[in-house]
Amino acid sequence: MAKMEMQNVTLTYGQRSVVRELSLHIYPGELLGLVGPNGCGKTSIIKALSHVLIPDAGRILLDGQELGAISRTELARLIGVVPQNPSLPDTFTVFEVAILGRNPHLGLLSGETARDMAVVWQAMEKTGITHLAKRRIGELSGGEKQRVTIARVLAQEPQVILMDEPTANLDIFQQMDILDLITGMCREKNTAGLIAIHDLNIAAQYCTRIIMLKNGQIHAEGMPKEVVTAENVREVFGADTTVYPHPENNLPMVLPNTGCRHSGNGNKEKQANKVH
Amino acid sequence: MKNLESDKKLDIPAKENSEGEAANMAREFATYSSRRLLLIVSICGLLAACVIIALLALTVGSVGIPFKTVWQVLISHLPFVHAQANWSAVTDMIITGIRLPRILLAGAVGTALGTAGATYQGLFRNPLADPYLIGVAQGAALGAVLGFIVPWTFGGSYLIPVMAFIGAVAAVSVVYLIARVGKTAPVTTLILAGVAIGALLMSVTSYFTMISADKVRSILSWMMGNLSYAGWDQLGIITPYIVVGLAVIFLFARPLNVMQLDEDQAEQLGINVERTKIILLGAATLITAAAVCFVGTIGFVGIIVPHIVRLIWGPDHRLLLPLSAIMGAILLILADTASRTLMAPSEIPVGVITAFIGAPFFLFLLRRTKKAVF
């Protein structure tokens, strides 16, 4: 089973370095959460891990082999990526997009076999979109499109799965659905999973390990309980919060401290002050 | 039905295939797998239509020749056939020396333009793309105009096509080199560079056209497309380019499907995007240059043919590319036949016909299907 590793990686866009000398591991069977404020380098890390963005310094290894030494097709068989806001062709049907996931497994001249079809259908079943098979992408909602992309990646049968905000367009039920699916996959198929995600509560509930990023560097790393603390959230996001344990599983939950901003009294006092 | 769907949603992740689900799967497989069959049937059907249209086109012209005679003349030219000739040598000459090469050339040019159009539209993910989008036409036109007005001493009668071919390929190469940022040439940059270079070349071409008072007619006629000088030699020269180009493009049909996602996703699905882009741009440019060098920049075929095919057969490039090839041939043979017969003995430029008849037909299709095409 595949393990991924970043060693002292620096990533830059133009002049601006987005990620500086960052090292991390993704182990088979775990779901690693990547959290942090906007612009902290989450998306760049995912692009680098999928060899779309080439690091300026440092090495990225898949099972001890550098990404550059592995062919594009081989990489696509091993690593599946759910990008943030992927663009999909509106006139393709759901099935036609999902089956594109089989591309790395096919030769230039060969067509899809019955097994390819079955793998695609299973991926669509798992993401609950079989009833949409014949619908065109242009007719789907944001959440449905998200599921199509996830189905396409599952159809790749990757050993490492990288996801950039895969639940951004989904309601709470669908988020749980997708994350249950992904955590289940990591556990059962021993897939190595990485998920960049905004929602700290979701991250704490589903990820086995969390890395909190600040300005392209690791601020905290470890179990959800160790990373998602009021102190870290203040230092990284600048947000004033209270962290409680979940009543059932004791995992951390982040609640905003609204202070007296929204309380009736505070407002009245402010208004009163203004009048005077 | 609604209940059934919501039930399915609650079943996620699905435990076992229910019977309905299995049937759905089988049906989906069947329709998708039958795509190869659909492709074969469609190709055969369209090819048959193309041959019939070509045969009918052989019968019409300044001299009407009965279908039976056309048929007999063609058969008499097959090897090992010794037919009793009951037609004049002139008839034979008209059919095999004039009309047949012209119709075949129209077919070859239409094939090239239709396929190149589909390739460019897929590559640029842009329904407005046509084979001339990134400078082929303007480059070819400038080359041809230079061929017309400069008293070159080489090339003889092939001077203009050679110059047009060189101009087309050079223009696209320059556009690609300019659009290159680091190791890649982003699609949008390519289009913008193409538009700018095209405008630059066009201004030069217009100037040369203006100052060459005596050649204006022949230059304009070239730019609007003209198949009247078609002969076997020209067909023999451009066919190899077109055959090779088509073979390369057809080979990349599935990668082109994957590239309908964005470039990052295509890379992550194992496509070497930049290499694929260069190969497809090169092949499409080659066949377009070969198509226009003898007959001029015939417009509208390259943009309309892929859309017609997409309206009927959908967006899968494995169907779209080969069917656009045949559809392009059919359309251009029809247009050229109209161009040489409607106002015989004088000719209407074929580019005028393609746009004048093609545009309303396309609008009719567009209104009738009432769905998003691209």
Overview of this protein structure:
The complex is a heterodimer of chains A (276) and B (374). Chain A has 276 residues and is of the alpha/beta class. Chain A has one domain (4-240): P-loop containing nucleotide triphosphate hydrolases (Rossmann fold, 3-Layer(aba) Sandwich), CATH 3.40.50. Chain A has 10 helices and 12 strands. A 6-stranded mixed sheet of chain A has the order 6-7-8-3-9-10, with helices on both faces. In chain A, strands 2-1-4-5 form a 4-stranded antiparallel sheet, with helices on one face. The longest helix of chain A has 18 residues, at 172-189. The N and C termini of chain A lie far apart (70 Å). Chain B is mainly α and 374 residues long. Chain B has one domain (101-369): ABC transporter involved in vitamin B12 uptake, BtuC (Orthogonal Bundle), CATH 1.10.3470.10. Chain B is 74% helix and 0% strand. Chain B is globular and about 70 Å long.
What is the global morphology of chain A?
globular
CATH class identity of chain B: Mainly Alpha
Q: What is the average of the pLDDT values of chain A?
A: 87
Please report the total strand number of chain A as a whole number. Answer: 12
Supply the number of helical segments of chain A: 10
> What percent of residues of chain A adopt helix (DSSP H or I)?
25-40%
Oligomeric state: heterodimer
What is the averaged pLDDT score of chain B?
Answer: 83
Radius of gyration from the alpha-carbon trace of chain A, in angstroms: 21 Å
The interface involving the most residues is between: A-B, 53 and 41 residues
CATH architecture of chain B: Orthogonal Bundle
CATH topology of chain B: ABC transporter involved in vitamin B12 uptake, BtuC
> Number of folding domains of chain B?
1
